[in-house]
């Protein structure tokens, strides 16, 4: 493990394999209950690993999951991990109206606060879908009492991203004068291009040596805090296969599932991880941007 005083954020998006955006076209929300759930078993496997390594992390919990597995969420909270919201139904923010987004996000926050008896202060959008089309969501997060967000990916991607936005934690000044802290997803500059290096599918698709090199490069030799993320289904090579998905979706979802857990163990050995609050507390946030500059 790195001896750096900078703490990187280990984060888990607590959702099941049938929730993912890659399968939206073949699995409707109304059919979710028809699929065998595996999120509890896989999350507990991650929890055991984090407990063995004495790491506390941030779990972004989908409200749909919390309703069905409240004891799981309570256990995560009681063992000292940070609980944050991943929304309720894993819908892309920019496909929702502000009214629907507000209703669903409040519902998820209320469910999590009732289970944990703790204030829920952090949020992450499904598939990082706070983009230039949906920056209005930050105002709603502020209205609902969230203090920080981790939804903005400073890269080009077909489904998400705010290219050119800051790559380190910063504060966003909203139109009403209030501020919300943004902890963007990790990217590394390579030959002038922003390369995603935050985990998830990239972590499974890249060779581990490349993931480690990109993470090290983005941290500027362990002087800047970064975010790493993954999903419980990414350590589950035996999950049911979804028929009729596109080849692109299958590639994104199934590549190297059997390698992810072992790579995660190596990542934990190579870098110093904690919760988002611990990570933000390890540095001074000195960058402040007005929301208009992100548009």
UniProtKB/TrEMBL annotation:
Protein's name in the database: DUF3473 domain-containing protein
PROSITE patterns with a match to the protein in the record: NODB (PS51677)
Any GO BP annotation: carbohydrate metabolic process
Domain spans labelled NodB homology: 25-295
A Pfam cross-reference name: DUF3473
Organism: Saccharophagus degradans
CDD domains: CE4_PuuE_HpPgdA_like_2 (cd10941)
Annotated GO MF terms: hydrolase activity, acting on carbon-nitrogen (but not peptide) bonds
């Amino acid at each position: 493990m790195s001896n750096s005083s900078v703490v990187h954020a280990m984060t888990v998006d607590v959702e099941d394999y049938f929730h993912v955006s890659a399968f939206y076209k073949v699995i409707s929300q109304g059919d979710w209950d028809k699929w065998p759930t595996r999120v509890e078993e896989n999350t507990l496997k991650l929890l055991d690993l984090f407990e063995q390594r004495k790491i506390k992390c941030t779990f972004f919990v989908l409200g749909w999951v919390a309703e069905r597995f409240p004891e799981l969420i309570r256990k995560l909270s009681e063992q000292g991990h940070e609980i944050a919201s991943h929304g309720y139904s894993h819908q892309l923010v920019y496909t929702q109206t502000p009214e629907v987004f507000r209703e669903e996000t409040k519902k998820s926050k209320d469910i999590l606060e009732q289970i944990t008896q703790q204030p829920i202060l952090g949020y992450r959008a499904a598939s990082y879908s706070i983009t230039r089309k949906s920056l209005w969501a930050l105002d709603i997060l502020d209205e609902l009492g969230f203090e920080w967000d981790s939804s903005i990916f400073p890269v080009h991607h077909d489904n998400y991203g705010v290219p050119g936005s800051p790559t380190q934690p910063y504060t966003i000044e909203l139109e009403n004068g209030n501020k919300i802290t943004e902890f963007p997803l990790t990217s590394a500059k390579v030959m002038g291009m922003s390369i995603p290096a935050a985990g998830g599918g990239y972590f499974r698709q890249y060779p581990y040596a490349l993931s480690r090199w990109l993470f090290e490069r983005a941290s500027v030799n362990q002087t800047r805090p970064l975010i790493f993320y993954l999903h419980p289904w990414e350590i589950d090579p035996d999950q049911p296969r979804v028929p009729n998905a596109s080849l692109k979706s299958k590639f994104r979802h199934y590549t190297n599932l059997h390698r992810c857990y072992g790579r995660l163990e190596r990542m934990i050995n190579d870098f110093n991880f904690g919760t988002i609050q611990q990570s933000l507390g390890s540095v001074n946030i000195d960058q402040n941007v007005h929301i208009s500059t992100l548009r």
